[in-house]
Design brief:
Layout: H1 3-23, H2 38-42, E1 50-54, H3 56-60, H4 66-73, E2 80-84, H5 92-100, E3 104-106, H6 118-133
Catalytic activity: uridine(1498) in 16S rRNA + S-adenosyl-L-methionine = N(3)-methyluridine(1498) in 16S rRNA + S-adenosyl-L-homocysteine + H(+)
Function: Specifically methylates the N3 position of the uracil ring of uridine 1498 (m3U1498) in 16S rRNA. Acts on the fully assembled 30S ribosomal subunit.
Enzyme class: transferase
Length: about 140
């Protein structure tokens, strides 16, 4: 994706995030970052306490324990990087990079979600766990 197109998409997502945060009266604004390539992504790993990869192969294997275990054990104010792949999934090279960086692979249920809706699903699960179960 060209840098101009990526920039426009980033601005659009930031506006959507801002409006959604205002509507839901959030106390902080989640970061949304679009990257041009995998190399750009690797530079972000060291900034986070946990790297969580929503992986379709984990979902196909009925993996359901990683996300709840992470949410139960993650200290307050930890920084979690959530990575969602494109339609069609991650390449073997991308998976190898994630594994080298101790990423946690998780399924998001028994259904394969669209790239656009998987992040919303994860944020909803985190919100339910952190804001409703333990508030």
């Amino acid at each position: 994706m060209g840098s101009k197109k990526l920039s426009k998409k980033q601005q659009r997502l930031e506006k959507i995030t801002q409006e959604a945060a205002e509507q839901s009266q959030r106390s902080f604004l989640p970061n949304v970052t679009l990257l041009a390539n995998e190399k750009d992504l690797s530079s972000f790993f060291s900034q986070y306490d946990y790297i969580l990869v929503a992986y379709e192969e984990s979902a196909k294997q009925d993996e359901t324990a990683t996300l709840p275990r992470l949410l139960q054990n993650v200290p307050v104010n930890s920084r979690i990087l959530a990575i969602f792949g494109p339609e069609g999934g991650f390449s073997p090279e991308e998976i190898a990079t994630f594994e080298q960086n101790q990423a946690l692979f998780c399924g998001l249920g028994s259904r394969i979600l669209r790239a656009e809706t998987a992040p919303l699903y994860l944020l909803s699960a985190i919100s339910y766990h952190c804001e409703l179960l333990y508030s």
